[in-house]
Design brief:
Number of helices: 14
Strand content: 5-15%
Number of strands: 13
Structural class: alpha/beta
CATH class of the largest domain: Alpha Beta
CATH topology of the largest domain: Rossmann fold
Shape: globular
Helix content: 25-40%
Strand order of the largest sheet: 3-2-1-4-5-6-7
Oligomer: single chain
Distance between the termini: 17 Å
Number of domains: 2
Length: about 375
């Protein structure tokens, strides 16, 4: 089956995309990854052998062609280039990564190719932002051609209807890489380190809540540290975090570490993963930490986090910052509990092994294509 995956920008920055198309290819499908971007193709991710990558408007070695491509990116629309490409390739199914991708493969087009609209985050958060955009009504019209909206957690299926009435929704989770025991974290060896793996951002990731929670127990654990690992885009927030740490006298215990190319090594240096996110689609940062054997703490209010973390089994879910601090205290003071939670986390993440998720995708794709042909 020929599968066309469309992503508007930074295609080769996205590890999820590489995992996804690798899974599709492993099931025997012919996979095309298609974008239309002059400047935002991205880099750092290698697509698997056998997967075709096509940039409809990329840079070339010809300066005149580049001038033309740059001009049409600024003044034109990729809709017609996608239309011609779809007509030429005739894929059996199209996956859209962003709503702009859905626009590019449906606007002023009336092909009968089934389309899957992917939701990579908590749908109300994503769709709530889109509602405020001037293109919202156009997106709603384009959505009429969507065969299935894809969500990452079963509980999210009911969140699509308020935005797209009568929409069909299907759940397939993210893949979680499984590691042999020798490559997991060794919790017998205490490092006295709490980590939080997420981009450093106030509104969505809320590192300041971790600082506030740790401050409540720091006097009893003066040799423990908290490390924030992830992309840094907001220097003002970095400064705010350190100012908050100084306010509580814990500036030597709070460290902003930045991005790591080998995050698994970071997990292996920790005892606890404290995760303060406001909402998630399916947090790979959290799940990867659990698969490597880390116990976790999150908030009960946080979608995805409150399903991956099973309270009292593989980690703790907290009601508020005070409760988060107490859950920190319990894990910091009880190595045996950390070890047990870590073992449970590893077992729980086996449900998301790549081969299991690949089979779910294969079944869904074949069902969608079969249903569309009826």
């Amino acid at each position: 089956m020929k599968i066309m995956v469309v992503k508007d920008r930074n295609v080769l920055n996205t590890k999820f995309l590489a995992q996804f198309v690798s899974s599709l290819s492993s099931k025997g499908h012919e996979v095309l990854v298609v974008c239309d971007t002059y400047r935002k193709q991205g880099s750092g991710v290698t697509l698997p052998e056998g997967v075709r990558f096509v940039n409809l408007n990329g840079k070339t070695k010809n300066p005149l062609v580049n001038f033309w491509h740059k001009a049409r990116e600024i003044f034109g629309t990729p809709v017609f280039r996608f239309s011609r490409f779809i007509e030429k390739e005739k894929p059996d199914i199209i996956f859209c990564y962003f709503f702009v991708d859905l626009y590019n493969v449906t606007f002023l087009q009336r092909h009968n190719i089934p389309i899957v609209m992917m939701m990579h985050c908590y749908p109300p958060a994503m769709l709530g932002r889109l509602q405020k955009k001037s293109k919202w009504r156009i997106y709603q019209k384009c959505a009429e051609q969507v065969s299935v909206f894809h969500v990452l957690m079963k509980s999210y299926e009911k969140t699509i209807a308020p935005y797209f009435e009568n929409a069909k929704v299907a759940t397939v989770p993210n893949e979680v890489v499984q590691l042999p025991e020798a490559e997991r974290v060794n919790l017998e060896q205490e490092k006295k380190r709490i980590i939080y793996v997420a981009r450093v951002e106030k509104e969505g990731k809320r590192q300041h809540l971790i600082v506030e929670a740790f401050a409540k127990v720091a006097k009893d654990f003066p040799d423990w540290v908290v490390e924030f690992w992830g992309l840094q885009k907001y220097q003002n927030y970095n400064d705010e975090l350190m100012a908050l740490a100084r306010k509580y006298g814990i500036e030597n215990n709070i460290k902003i570490m930045g991005y790591s190319d080998n995050i698994q090594d970071v997990y292996r240096t920790a005892d606890i993963h404290a995760f303060a996110s406001l909402h998630e689609g399916f947090s790979l940062a959290l799940a990867d930490g659990m698969a490597i054997g880390l116990p976790s703490i999150g908030f009960k209010e946080t979608p995805s986090v409150n399903e991956l973390i099973l309270d009292g089994h593989n980690g703790f879910l907290a009601e508020d910052v005070d409760d988060f601090a107490e859950k920190m205290r319990r894990l910091m003071s009880d190595k045996a509990l950390r070890i047990q939670f870590g073992k449970n986390a590893v077992e729980d993440m086996k449900a998301y092994a790549p081969e299991i998720v690949a089979e779910q995708w294969d079944e869904l794709i074949r069902k969608i294509v079969k249903d569309e042909k009826k």
